[in-house]
Amino acid sequence: MDKMILLRIKNQILGTLAPSKVAKDHVKIFLSPRRFPLKNWEENAELEGERLCFGKEFEECLSALRWGKGGDKRVLIMHGWESRATQMYTLAQPLLEQGYEVIAIDAPRHGLSKGKRANPVQFASSVVAACRELGPFHAAIGHSMGCAGLAMAREKGASITRLVLLASPANMLDNLQAFADFMKLPKKCTEIFINGIGITVGCPADELDVGKMLSTGQPEVLLVHDRNDIEVPFSSMARIYKKLSNARTWESSSLGHRKLVRDPDIATIVAQFVGTGDIARTTYADSM
C-alpha cells in the first residue's frame, strides 16, 4: 500500500486517540520544508547570477542571487514554499532586458540559506532584511507563500509600493486547513494543529490575510493565477481582489501552480506591470 495512504490512515486513528501528539508532530512537518537537488534548468540561473549574503539578524546570513546591475532600478523576487531563487530566473529575464537589477531571495531553510525551520513570518522578515540591506526596490514579485511574505513585510515596514502576486493564497488559514485535510487529520487534531502553528510562528493563522494586509497604503498590485491550480485554488484570487478592487488581474488556464513562474508569457506580463503599473488587458476582474 502507498506510504501516503498508510500515513493518512494512521493519522485518522491516532489523531482521534492522541490528537495533541499527532498535531504537534504535524506542526514540525509543516514548518520543515523539504530541500531538493538543483535541477538542470536551474544551473544557468546560478551561473548567471552573483551570490549575496544578507540578514544579519538571523542565526546565519541568508543567501540571495543577483542578476544584472541596474543601479536604482531594482526588483525583488520572493519564491514560494520549498522553492528557491534559481527557480525564479524566467521571471527575471525580461526585467533584465529592460535594465533592471533583479535580486531573488532564498528564504530560511530554502536554497542556499541555512535554518532548521521556515514559516510565513520568517519569509516576511527575510523581505524586510533584503529591503534594508539590498534595496530600495522599485517593485517586488512573490509566488505562493512568497506573496504572504511580501504582504506581511509591508506591515513590518518594508517600503514596497508595486507588487506582483503569483498564485497567492488568500490567507494562511486556508493553507493550514488544506494541509490538515490532505493529511486526514481529525477535526480536534486539526484545531490543535492550526493553533500550534500560530503559537510557533507568533501570529494566528486567521490574521495572515493577504488582501487585508495589502488594503492599507494603496499599493499597486497585479494578481496572477491559473484556473487549474490544485495547490492554491483559483478562488483565492477573487477573495484577495474583493479587498483590493484597484488591483489588476491576469489568469491562465494550463500552467497550474508551479509552472506559472517558468512561463515566458507570464514573465512578459509581469515585467510590463513592473515597468508601467499596468498591463495590456485584464480578464478576471471583468468577469466578476
Proportion of residues in β-strands: 15-25%
Indicate the mean pLDDT. 90
User: Tell me about the biggest sheet?
Assistant: 8 strands, mixed
Helix proportion range? 40-55%
N/C terminus separation: 44 Å
Strand order of the largest sheet: 1-2-4-3-5-6-7-8
Radius of gyration: 19 Å
Q: Structural class given helices, strands, pairing? A: alpha/beta
Instruction: Give the H and E element order.
Output: HHHEEEHEHEHEHHHEHEH
**What is the helix tally?**
11
Overall strand count? 8
Q: Indicate the overall shape.
A: globular
Could you list the spans in which at least 5 consecutive residues all have pLDDT below 50? 284-288
Describe the model.
- The chain is of the alpha/beta class and 288 residues long.
- Helices cover 41% and strands 15% of the residues.
- It has eleven helices and eight strands.
- It has helices at 3-17, 19-30, 43-48, 89-97, 120-134, 145-155, 172-182, 187-201, 210-214, 235-241, 264-276; strands spanning 50-54, 62-67, 74-78, 101-106, 139-143, 162-166, 220-226, 248-252.
- An eight-stranded mixed beta sheet has the order 1-2-4-3-5-6-7-8, sandwiched between helices.
- Strand 7 (220-226), helix 10 (235-241) and strand 8 form a beta-alpha-beta unit.
- Helix 4 (89-97) packs across helix 11 (264-276) and helix 5 crosses helix 6 (145-155).
- The longest helix has 15 residues, at 3-17.
- Residues 284-288 have low confidence and may be disordered.
Give me some keywords for this one.
single chain; 288 residues; alpha/beta; eight-stranded mixed β-sheet; disordered C terminus
